[in-house]
Amino acid sequence: MHPLAHPLVSRRAEALRGAVTAPGDKSISHRALMFGGLAIGETAIHGLLEGEDVLNTAKAMRAYGAAVRRDEDGVWRVSGVGVGGLAEPEDMLDLGNSGTGARLLMGLAAGHPITSFFTGDASLRRRPMARVMKPLGDMGARFVSREGGRLPLAVTGARHPLPLDYTLPVASAQVKSAILLAGLTAPGETIVVEPEPTRDHSERMLRHFGATVRVEDRADGTRAVTLTGQPELAAATVRVPGDPSSAAFPAVAALLVPGSEVRIANVGANPLRFGLFETLLEMGADIALENRREEAGEPVVDLLVRAGGLKGVVVPPRRAPSMIDEYPILAMAAACAEGPTVMEGLAELRVKESDRLGAVARGLAACGVEVEEGPDRLVVHGKGRPPLGGAMIAANLDHRIAMAFAVLGMVSEKPVSIDDGEPIATSFPGFVPMMNRLGADIAEEPA
Ligand code: S3P
């Protein structure tokens, strides 16, 4: 535990009641700042997530020469520099905890003839960057990094970036997006082929800003995304939907705490982000999707969630990219469900903000839940009743591990403690007061 750690204790809750709004989508917020920073004119962003990850991206975009401000009406306004117009940052860029911030900005930097230095917190400095260095290197950028492609690293972008035709070795929207961002300054077509479709916020937003992006689903199940290089991006208005990855926490809490009924407004329902809710419905969850609409090219719904018994299911590996950040909270639901829940194709979970597969397996076992952990699979044997709890969970600088176990504490027989709730602010500032307003009993204890 570091000296500024902020421990949490989550105790068994009474029925949750009320209505909440999910905070802005993290993925879309990062992209809105980046595309706004590249566009000509003033982009207005409504509902930007004001979490630390996104605020670090805002700072980085200022360092690259964009004017980024938050007005009193809560709207963020970005005046861009135009594609190819980024200035060289005067100092190191610190992306904090954010893999998305770091990898996407590396793509942006790789297509400009400037040198940028990237670093981050202890979690981000452990994460693999070679997955973006390789394709961006093929486009003409040069990198110097720590051993194993770890931060801190320096990138000198290409003066004349080459368009690329690249097949992703892993399903990663971050790698796809980094290549597309670098492809903006390359002539001709940059093509990214994904083994399985991953979140398509970059594609949707590029189009929203006026770029030409073609998407082709191929017969072999892969998806090819083609960007026409050197577009002129025009400022646009972006309305950021609520983050389904954040809505997941109050939603699962409401499913698990008996007698609960919670409404969650403004949840992004992009099908490439909605795998958790699909899975929960298969488990027998009572979730009504209401008021379907579209905002700035993204589908949005309101959720009405009522508590009820869940059954274990087998989650198909092909669904993993559409719920990759939701396995920790799904595992908490599985721990209370009746029968085993089998989750496969999870290798990527080991290289997130922490090794989430290991953290979930260890934490659940410490709370008295029977689990089987494989290199890329997890089986949680739920018994249809609340787990024992009573453990201290190491958050390891991982917001989603902290929030998932805080939810488990709400139904466990004994309180669940989290050694540090501080990382929650990276994606969900206000998580603890919001959950407590619904009826949770999460206390911030002195370190
Ligand atoms: C993200 C992509 C995913 C996800 C992350 C956000 C994005 O990462 O885990 O939280 O915004 O593109 P990978 O691309 O590494 O799977």
UniProtKB/TrEMBL annotation:
Give the Enolpyruvate transferase domain ranges.
14-433
Which keywords belong to this entry? Amino-acid biosynthesis, Aromatic amino acid biosynthesis, Cytoplasm, Transferase
Q: Which domain of life is it from?
A: Bacteria
Cellular compartment(s): Cytoplasm
Q: Which E.C. number(s) belong to this protein?
A: 2.5.1.19
| Lineage of producing organism | Bacteria, Pseudomonadati, Pseudomonadota, Alphaproteobacteria, Rhodospirillales
A GO molecular function annotation here is:
3-phosphoshikimate 1-carboxyvinyltransferase activity
Gene name per UniProt = aroA
Q: How does it assemble?
A: Monomer.
Give the organism the record lists. Answer: Oceanibaculum indicum P24
Active site residues of this protein: 325
Q: Which InterPro entries match?
A: Enolpyruvate_Tfrase_dom, Enolpyruvate_Tfrase_sf, EPSP_synthase, EPSP_synthase_CS, RNA3'P_cycl/enolpyr_Trfase_a/b
Query: What's one GO-annotated cellular component?
Result: cytoplasm
**Pathway note:** Metabolic intermediate biosynthesis; chorismate biosynthesis; chorismate from D-erythrose 4-phosphate and phosphoenolpyruvate: step 6/7
Function text: Catalyzes the transfer of the enolpyruvyl moiety of phosphoenolpyruvate (PEP) to the 5-hydroxyl of shikimate-3-phosphate (S3P) to produce enolpyruvyl shikimate-3-phosphate and inorganic phosphate.
Q: What is this protein called?
A: 3-phosphoshikimate 1-carboxyvinyltransferase
Q: Which reaction does it catalyse?
A: 3-phosphoshikimate + phosphoenolpyruvate = 5-O-(1-carboxyvinyl)-3-phosphoshikimate + phosphate
> Which residues bind phosphoenolpyruvate per the record?
26, 99, 127, 174, 356, 400
